[in-house]
Design a protein that fits this description.
It is a single chain. By secondary structure, the protein is an alpha+beta fold. It contains eight helices and four strands. Strands 1-4-2-3 form a four-stranded antiparallel sheet. Helix 1 (about 1-10) packs across helix 2 and helix 2 (about 10-25) crosses helix 3 (about 35-45).
């Protein structure tokens, strides 16, 4: 603990970063325009202000994109439900996990219509997910807490002001449960392209 205090005294920016997280989560900085908040947040995390006129690093380029690349297609691509239609139109429905339902709030879900195994997730954020491997032992109260909390999460304001998330409507979707028949797990590949 003393070591953390000493590090904080030596680097007051880290203290400001630590203090800013709960304030940001509480909405204290919501009224600050993106053009002002993004460089401040970058400075808190990185220790320098981004060069947004002539970005050289990957992180600087990401900050510039947040501010100036406002392609409306991006909003559709970050919405977990809407992107399925886009992928189906581009490469075919066979490459998309089957959707089982879409709801505005948890109370609208009719669990009797869902199969024995399924996945529930919010369409607008990261982490709002509940997996049901066995409907008989599925904890609906726990699922409701997770997903209702996630629906309230403003991913745009709370996660770095990524513009594509600004207008995504928070919803809950159900998907077919997927797993590898040999391992009993799902292999997940992520590709970062820039």
């Amino acid at each position: 603990m003393i070591e953390k205090v000493i590090k904080g005294i030596r680097n007051p920016r880290k203290i400001l970063l630590y203090l800013s997280r709960p304030l940001e989560a509480a909405g204290w900085f919501d009224k600050i325009p993106d053009e002002r908040w993004i460089p401040i947040r970058y400075w808190l995390r990185m220790g320098s202000f981004p060069d947004l006129k002539n970005p050289k690093t990957y992180n600087e380029k990401l900050q510039r994109m947040k501010l100036y690349n406002r392609n409306p297609l991006y909003t559709r691509l970050v919405d977990k439900y809407e992107v399925k239609k886009f992928v189906s139109d581009c490469v075919g429905e066979q490459y998309v996990i089957t959707s089982l339902g879409l709801w505005d709030k948890f109370e609208d879900i009719d669990f009797d219509t869902l199969p024995e195994r399924f996945v529930l997730k919010t369409t607008h954020d990261s982490g709002g997910i509940v997996i049901c491997k066995d409907k008989r032992s599925f904890n609906i109260d726990r699922a409701q807490k997770i997903l209702t909390k996630s629906l309230k999460n403003n991913y745009y304001l709370r996660k770095g002001r990524e513009w594509p998330y600004k207008d995504v409507k928070p919803r809950i979707m159900a998907e077919k449960y997927m797993e590898d028949s040999k391992t009993g797990e799902l292999r997940d590949y992520k590709f970062f392209v820039f």
